[in-house]
Amino acid sequence: MQAVKDVVLFILDLGPAIFVGLIIFLLGLLVRAKPGKAFSAAITLGVAFAGVGLVIGYLIGGIAPAGQALVERTGIELTSLDFGWTAGAAITWAWQYAAFMFPVQIVINLVMLAFNWTNCLNVDLWNVWGKIFMAALVTDMTGNVWAAWLLAGVWIVLELKSADLTEKQVQHYTGIPGISVPHLIMLDNIILTPVAWLVERIPGLDKIKADPQALREKLGIFGENHIVGFLLGLLIALIGGFGLKAALGVAIVGATGLTLMPKVAAMFMEALAPIQEATAEFMKARFPNRTVSIGLDWPVLAGLPSLWTGAILLIPVLLLFAVILPGNAVLPFGSILLIESTIGTVILAKNDVVKTWIYGVVITITRFFTATAFAVSITKLSQVTGVFTAPEGFETYTWLGMSYMNWVMLKIADLLSGRGIVVGLVVIVVMAACTYMWWKEMQKREAALA
Amino acid sequence: MKVIFVACGSGVASSETAAYKLKKLLDEKKLKADVKAVNFRSLKSIASQCDILVHIAPNDPTDYGVPTVNGVPFLTGIGLDPVMKEIEELLEE
């Protein structure tokens, strides 16, 4: 037994690039990839980890002095740097139990399909990371690993039900038959349904005519990573009192960081693609005679111009919120184009750009508080997993795009651990009420499109 | 060699998955092409660098000025034959 433990500890101690690579290699062989291909996938994953660490180190090294200067000069306490979802995903895959989330999601999905509890066959295995992210953080903050896995299960069920409840709407807005989107971002609409109920009753709102595609063509340049990274770096440095030369230097670091980050993160998926494909084929083969909806990742919605225009119009709101929201510690950077706040809301808003933006503003408030609440734990996790090193210039790192559902799960995990009983119960009651409203509203909309 | 861009929202997850599937199918048919996963947001500036665009969001109203093929079948596995035929024909042109 001791020998086994020693071997496991030795492998974990090799760092995520090696031990997760080893898992990918073994999974590759399991799905019958050729050893050469499996080896290539494993090394690609190692490169992805090293690459993300490199880019984050570079980005923080360049932005931190400007961020510090901004804090000192303005007195606004923004001590946590938002590094965007890519770094969140990198930390996640490095969590030692990450690989177990795949079978959990697949088994829950197959069981629910077999009992006709869902119509969605989720072949999007990339977004398993969202559940791992929550489970890793909740485990760290509550010490209750069982609660974390139980809640991950609840989360998976909610995603599948959300896919069922938006299936026709998604097909209607995208024009793609036979699909659905079981993405966690769609769960934003649970707490936004009461907000939508109010907004629908504002007189005159429907009279505002905005053409999201025309706006997108005009503002589209602000949606490009290098442009927005440059401008944001420049802005932070200039507010921090840097001279033009130094500020331009910071701006280029911002542009480079935001441009390279998704490029290195794409290598995670490149490594996972063979496993993703084999698993999806396996799952589809279980239900040959049944029409299911194929659950896909959110980019099938990316053709809706309101989604992009809404996110671009949220940029000034983000900067304002960073300054005025009480208790906020997050300096928005990696998530400056916060499409996390418009992907789900565009469906709730029925593809109307004004409403997408309004719901986006409301849900963005929850993101600032959630990202602040989890910053310490995210920073700790990034160091434990060795994805990148201790913060310099900032106290913590965080991901501004993270869902309020992480906070909800944290509070329920606390309750399950016998702490924060009152808060936990209030959270459950509020969520139950919102879920009921959301469920009825979505059923109504689905029926209207049937 | 002709260049094929596979575009999704972030250029990370869906486009890589679809690109992998497309590469595999092209290999099986012994067809050669340079397949790249790209970010949807930069499409407007970079679309001219490719010969064929495989788009994960086929309802996008923007005109990118290159032949565009629906990329969703590479994710769902449904309706793959017609889109592959389309791509083959575009490659032969």
> Topology as H/E string of chain B?
EHEHEEHH
Strand content of chain B: 15-25%
Number of strands of chain B: 4
The largest β sheet of chain A comes out as:
3 strands, parallel
Helix content of chain A: over 70%
Q: Give the biggest beta sheet of chain B.
A: 4 strands, parallel
pLDDT below 50 for ≥5 consecutive residues: which ranges of chain A? none
Secondary-structure class of chain A: mainly alpha
Give structural notes:
The complex is a heterodimer of chains A (450) and B (93). Chain A is mainly alpha-helical and 450 residues long. In chain A, 70% of the residues lie in helices and 4% in strands. Chain A is built from 17 helices and six strands. A three-stranded parallel sheet of chain A has the order 5-1-6. The radius of gyration of chain A is 22 Å and the shape is globular. The mean pLDDT of chain A is 90. Chain B has 93 residues and is α/β, with parallel strands linked by helices. Chain B contains four helices and four strands; from the N terminus they run E-H-E-H-E-E-H-H. Chain B is globular and about 30 Å long. Chains A and B meet through helix 9 and helix 11 of A and helix 1 of B.
